[in-house]
Every structure is written in C-alpha cells, then in structure tokens.
Amino acid sequence: MIKKYKVTKDEFWKLDREIIVGSLDEFLTPLREKFFDTKSDYYRLLNTMTKTPFFKNLTDLAYKDL
C-alpha cells in the first residue's frame, strides 16, 4: 500500500532542498578540496587546457586532414 505524503508543496521542497543540498555539500566538499588545490595534477592540467594556444593547437591538429 502506498501512503500519500501529506504536506504542502512548499514544505516538501523545503525538506527536499535541505536533504539534497546537505548531501551534495558533503559529497562535493572533498572533491573541491582535492581538485582545486593549486598544487594538484588536476588543477595543473586544467590550467594548461584552458589556455588559448592549447585549444588552437588541438583544433589545428583535429582538422588537419579536412
């Protein structure tokens, strides 16, 4: 038997936001700390890949045969 959850939409979304945001923060905080540490390999690679010459070189290489 399925029981109906008897609260208003506002109450439901308030509870839903508290659960989701709390869960996401718990999940994302260690990742943020790891990946945005300026000494990490990830951060170094991200920094390299976002520089314009990298994308130009990549594009030139990708379209070389066309």
The total count of helices amounts to 3
First-to-last CA distance: 62 Å
Gyration radius, rounded: 22 Å
Let me know the largest β-sheet.
Answer: none
Helix content: over 70%
How many DSSP E strands?
Answer: 0
Uncertain parts: none
Total discrete domains: 1
In N-to-C order, the SSE pattern is HHH
Indicate the proportion of strand residues: under 5%
- Give the overall form: elongated
Mean pLDDT: 82
What do you see in this structure?
By secondary structure, the protein is mainly α. The protein has one domain (9-62). The mean pLDDT is 82. The chain has helices at residues 9-35, 41-49, 52-62. The N and C termini lie far apart (62 Å).
List the helices and strands and how they pair.
Layout: H1 9-35, H2 41-49, H3 52-62
Descriptive tags:
66 residues, mainly alpha, 3 helices, 0% strand, elongated
Give a brief rundown of this model.
By secondary structure, the protein is mostly helical. The protein contains 3 helices and no strands.
